Each structure stands twice: as structure tokens, then as C-alpha cells.
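## Example record

The block below lists the input lines for one assembly entry, exactly as stored, with component labels intact.
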Amino acid sequence: MDTTSTAAGAPRGRRAHLPRLTRQAPTGPGAVRPDGLRRAPADHWPKYLAISPFYLLFLAFGLIPVVFSLYLAFHRWDGIGGMEYAGLSQFRYLLTDSQFWNSISVTVQIWAMATVPTLFLAMVTAVLMNSAVRFKGFYRVAYFVPSVTSIVAIAIVFGSIFSTEFGLTNAALRAVGLDTVPWLNSPWGIKTAIAALMTWQWVGYNAIIYLAGLQTIPSELYEAARVDGAGPVQSFFRITVPMMRPVILFTLVVSTVTGLQSFSESQVLLASTSNTSNAGGPDNAGQTMVLYFYQQTFDNNDFGYGAAMAWGIFLVVALFAIINWRLVQRRER
Amino acid sequence: MRPTPRTKGSRRNGLALHLILITGMVLSLFPFYWTLVMATNTTGDIFRYPPKLTIGSHFGDNVSKVFDSIDFPGSMLNTFVVAVSVTVLVLFFDSLAAFTFAKFDFPGRRALFVVLMGIFMVPTQLQAIPQFVIMARLGWIGSLTALIVPAAANAFGIFWMRQYMMGAIHDELLDAARLDGCGFFRQYWHVALPVVRPGLAFLGIYTFIASWNDYMWPLIALVNPHNLTLQVALSQLNGVHSTDYSMVMAGALLAMIPLLVVFVLAARHFIADLAKGAVRG
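Predicted C-alpha cells for the full assembly:
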């Protein structure tokens, strides 16, 4: 016991070095070397030097850019000529830009169409894997592979699978005697294709995380429930779901933050279906927020408007993050 | 749920279970097989109805068409240089900073760590424009420097390594090293690093994969069509030759292979570490 519980008073056992992220005190006194603050700051120079690369890089490529993008949002600029002060007009235009509002709704729709099936299928897969005795390691690798594969390559592959004239999906529909669907040429088709791509890519990743969560639930809980006459469905909803809530929220937060900033999926899928690089798909139905931002900024060289839009996107993502945060808070109370 | 004693019924359940899992696995792996099918047939074979579903013999032709259309070896080399440089720099800078945060106290430590966590939240597109402008001023646009330098250290890696080091490096070890006259850097290099090698392996693979697959920033920063990374070159190939499926798929396949090899070799530990990290959070 004494080997694992350090002076920091960290939780004992195998996970002693894995404190929870929430509400921890990273600077708890015992967690650090006792030779700390008594010395003069000048004596600490190797430590400042050691952490400096990150902060210098952040200053140059993180903080200055963020401040600059705020400044830029109040200007008109094509990236080359002089900047012209524009006051609030970029933001005013953003609020009336129906294409921006459309991109918000497109992003949220695709996010919902992808996240709900992803997390559901991931949970089903994890529960099944957890009760499988053999081949577990094999399944884990096979299910995980999509999430480490290049998004560009995947988008190209899905573009061909959902291709309207020659796609595999339509060939399968024809084979069973159904009408074909113009996947990449209709508003709902393109959203479905993108959501299918995201679902395919992230089910395995989330399943692996759920599986790790399931394995931390003590089996005594299930045995007690069985003794009390609970069936598998009941113990799933009464034991598994409540115990897994933090893990489910983690996956929800991750897929919200990444899903709302999706770009590559639609950018690559749409590039192959139209002649202009500026494509948003049929009725702009595949134009996500970040894709629209990219097109306005780097295709149309409208840097000032792009900066204003980046702040708009930031607000939308932050809003969703706060909603997620609220869910976490309610759990902890 | 623990395995129950095997009866006839439970064996049938076990069979059904594996059937479902295998179906899922087939769905998960099918797009890779389909990529292989398309990359080894002609576009005509695929455009037929019913489409050809077996592996063909035209892979060589398709690959040579890819090599004629884009500088594939050059892009692959670029991607490799970027991914290796970023991985090495991230491992060094992140673990050094993580070691400092995990094991030492110094004035401003708490505030600096809060700043670090705050940086997690800054969305990339907010940085994209000014970063592009700064790079242009520095003359880095179009060069690989623009991809390597901003990625050389990151908040995620520092945070992750710090969590790992807090438990993995025992204070007694550092005390002993200090008694032997080891300074700060030698404690890091000779005591900390050997102990946290598994943690470094995870961070290294994670960083390598992320860098290899990165798309949006290289798309913005690499303006010279003859000096691209694999992902950007691939998307260019797709944009220009989107009707020649077989050729584009051969390119996609070649771009996937190195990463899949890295992943499958490292998969066991990598997946376990990643899942543990998420459950902990």
C-alpha cells in the first residue's frame, strides 16, 4: 500500500497515478517537490526554461493570432492590400447572412445524425464485446482502425460508395429492387452520406472507451441485481447506464466539439461532386460552419469577414460546450 | 458481466454474440476492402452493374497513373518529415514541461497550468487566419516549417504526460538522483524519461497519426502545388481526376498503408492506454 500511496495522498491502488480530471487540485502541496517556493525565482530558471517552448509557441501562434483575429473582425481586408476599419459591419453582416445561419443548421443536423447512432451503436458494441470471452483483442483492433484512418482517404472512399450513378449503395438498392437515391446530389442525401461516414469512423473509438468503462463496474452489482430478480435489460438501465454516465458524457463532449467543427468530410466529399472548389453541395446542404468559413476566407480572400465568422463559430461551439458542462454539473450535485 | 457456466443455451447465445460482433467488424473493415477492390480494377469494372466485387489485377497501372498525376513520393516524404519532426519535438517539449509541472513547484506554477488548460478550448479556426498572416510575414507559407513549428508543443500532450508522470515517477528516485548530484535536466533525462517510456510511446503514436492525417492547416499553408503533404495531394488528385475512381483509390490506398502498419503494430497498448485515459477523465 505504501508503495502506491505517495505523500500526495493520492488514491491508492493501481490507478494511484491517474487522478480524476474534474475538480482536482493540480498544485496540491504534497504532489510537488518540497524544495519549492522558499528559493528565489531566479533559482528556478531551468524549470521556466523547461516549460517555455510551449508558452512561446502559444504566444506566437496561439495568443497573438486570437487577439489579432478580434482586431481583424473589425476590418475589411483581402489579405494583401491595406486594412480598412469597418466597425461592427462584419458582425452585422454575419447576423443577416442566411448562408451562415444555414451552415449552423447544417452542422447541427449532421452532428445529430451522426452522434446519436454513433453513441448508440458504440454502447451496443461495447456491451457485446464485454460479454465476449474470446477474440476480444482482435475485435478491438478491427473496430478501432477506422478512427485512425486518414479522413481524406475515407471521404474519397465514401464518395464512391454513395456515388449517385455508380455507387455501391445504389447498386445494392437496385439489387433488391428498390429505387436508387441521388445521395450526393440531394440535400438529405449528402447529409446522410456525411453522417454515415462519421458514424462509421467513430463507432469503434467510442465502443473501446465504453468497454473500458464497463470493465470498471464491479460484477458484484450485476450479481446482486440478478439475485433480486433483475433481467439483463433492467440491469442495463439500472446499473450500466448510471455507472457509465461520466464516460457517456465524455464521449458526448468530444463528439460535440469535433462534430461541430467538421470540415474535411464535406470538403472532400463535395469537391468530387462539383466543378467549383467553392461548393456547399446541393442547396448548400453539405456546407458546415467551418467549411463556409474556409471558403469565405481562403477562397474569396475575405479575411475580415472570415475572422468575424470564426468568432461566430466559437460562440456556437461554446454554447454547446456550456450545455454539456451543465449536464456534468447536474451529475455532480 | 462475467462468463457464466456453459450450458447449451449460453453456448447458443455466445454464437449469436460473435455473429453480431463479426457483422459489425465486417462493416467496419469493408470500406478498406472496397478501396482495395477499386484500386486493383479499372474504373470501367466498377462502373458496371453489377459492380465487380473481387480484387483485380490493375493495381500497377493505377499506381503509375497516380505517380504521373501527383508527386506521390515527394508528398509522402514531406508527410513523413513533418510527422517525424513533430513527433520528436512534441515528445521532448511536452514531456519536459510535463515533468516540470508534475514534480516541481515554482512561482506562477498554478497560474501557468490554468493557462495551459484554457488553451485546450481555443478553436483552431480562430487561429487559422492570423496564423496564416504570421506565417506569410515570416516567409514560411508553402514550406514545411509552417506545419512543424506551430505543432512542436501542445497542451494535450503536456496535460496527458503530467497525469502519467505524477504517479509513475516516485519522489524517492528523484531524491536519490539529487543526492548523486543530478541537476534538473539530468533528473529529467536519466531518471524520468526511462520510467515513462510507455507513456511516451502512446503520445508518440498519437501525435504521429494526428500529424499524418492533418488536413485543414496543410491545405491552407501549403500553397505550392508541387510541395504538398499526402492528404492535400490526395484531395487534389480527387478534385481533378474524380471520374477515374480506380486511380484515386490507388492513391488513397497507398496513403493509408503506412499509417495502418504503424497502428496495427502498436494497436494493443495504444488502444488500452487511450481507453484508460478517457475513462479516467
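The two ends of chain A are 31 Å apart (CA to CA). Residues 1-37 of chain A have pLDDT under 50 and may be disordered.
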